[in-house]
Amino acid sequence: xxxxxxxxxxxxxxxxxxxxxxxxxxxxxxxxxxxxxxxxxxxxxxxxxxxxxxxxxxxxxxxxxxxxxxxxxxxxxxxxxxxxxxxxxxxxxxxxxxxxxxxxxxxxxxxx
Length: 112
Hints:
single chain, alpha/beta, CATH 3.90.1180.10, three-stranded parallel beta sheet, 5 strands, 34% helix, 21% strand
């Protein structure tokens, strides 16, 4: 299995559309020999993350939830408290399959 380096330009691309494209490249869905139970995706490098299109109104009202794994530990933070790269990584993480391959796929993601 040969992996190539895919470069994705984030200039003026909305967060969700960019995350869908990058998640598909990490999973390998663009390859003819794609199998969901194998890690056949490419290495993805996202550039110009500062020029990504983010709606300030949506950032002010969107909450990101996480759990501390303690009883009553559900936390909520507004999306505007995160950086653009953290928001993109969070969106891609939620779009990848929830199995053992997810960590390997995320290691091949570089955000600049």
